[in-house]
């Protein structure tokens, strides 16, 4: 046999050995990649494919699911992240019904985020095959399944009985092609008493754990560490049935007992506690003298942000009394001359005076950024507005460059849309300064909590008549209208003297309001 022939046969043998040495799952994956879009491409396409109206590239919950024996090719649409602070959302009104065709840019459903009601636009073609989260569904985590989309209208009927329980298990399990001896060995291992080391199977290679959103939710509810669960889905992905099987097998208790470094007495106590049923939550009796009101997403965010602000920001407070007689006269004159074209409020003058004072004292128009202080070039003033769902702060942009009429128009529009839950994220996120006015409720003064990342907030009280000494008056005194304001400032950014300079400038503009027109 020639040397060339030997080399040729050796090369074929090496190639065959390499193919045989490749795991079955890898060969299946290679074949599958020729028929389906790869996971990485689907995720990249999904993240770019969905967006909220007028928002820049929010995360989406779209994931490609492969066809199975029961269901054709489809897309599993998850709860999108429509704002930077959103961790969960509520499902509003669906704008599409099952069977409807969806064009790129169509509004699929309204989503209630932590601050507003937003339209969720879908950016691919297809048909709505199944709604998994109906209108009114509350507190869905990001990427939790909400709908099924298919490419062909004929496939819609196949999902008539599709349920949320099946959302995590529609992909074909690649590991299901193992040989029957391996299956028998696996069954034998599960039936035999496991050692502590055997009771802790890993869900995936390395530190990353692959699990469906539903499986993650179930594991969190039952207090199960996903690292202890063996997944049956593709690439060892953990699905709902894996969690249920794990709970039924009782492995969680054995794993907890084997991994916890406790004394025998403590171990017995822990086992007794684990086997004891959890106490059921008691509903208030019909005659109870209270009502438990569920927290909305907005209320949760308000609680979190203000608690953080009050506990981490070093507040200090400065108070100033301002004579408002000249503002009231100028306001009356301007409104009379407008003939109904506009109607200026005291708050419009307050916003304009604050913007002018921020221009004069730019250190107050700054925010704490951890490693640096950011000084803003324009006065973007957030105006606190009360809505049925809670407090929100729509932002009037570039107040330093606008006149009183433009500010008044912007405030009315923003507050109206805030109360209708129709603000866009960029209209209530950001800004450089906050004003909270409770004067219309008869509150003379109050101390507001700073709205991060702003370094200050101005609390505005009501205007009250006061007697002041006036040597030129016949009686030696006169009555004037006085408004009390209080500045809450972040001492990391605004020193006391700087805050005082701001209030001095603010008072000067309101007591001589003609300067606001310059």
Automatic annotation (TrEMBL):
Residues 210-247 form the Peripheral subunit-binding (PSBD) domain. Residues 170-184, 192-203 have a biased composition (Low complexity). It catalyses: N(6)-[(R)-dihydrolipoyl]-L-lysyl-[protein] + acetyl-CoA = N(6)-[(R)-S(8)-acetyldihydrolipoyl]-L-lysyl-[protein] + CoA. One of its GO terms (molecular function) is dihydrolipoyllysine-residue acetyltransferase activity. PROSITE patterns: BIOTINYL_LIPOYL (PS50968), LIPOYL (PS00189), PSBD (PS51826). Its main location: mitochondrion. GO terms for biological process: pyruvate decarboxylation to acetyl-CoA. Keywords: Acyltransferase, Lipoyl, Pyruvate, Transferase, Transit peptide. Its cofactor is (R)-lipoate. Residues 74-150 form the Lipoyl-binding domain. GO terms for cellular component: mitochondrion; pyruvate dehydrogenase complex. It is an enzyme of class 2 (transferase). It comes from the Eukaryota. Its EC number is 2.3.1.12. It is found in: Mitochondrion. Residues 170-203 are annotated as: Disordered. Binds 1 lipoyl cofactor covalently. Belongs to the 2-oxoacid dehydrogenase family. NCBIfam families: PDHac_trf_mito. The pyruvate dehydrogenase complex catalyzes the overall conversion of pyruvate to acetyl-CoA and CO(2). This is Acetyltransferase component of pyruvate dehydrogenase complex.
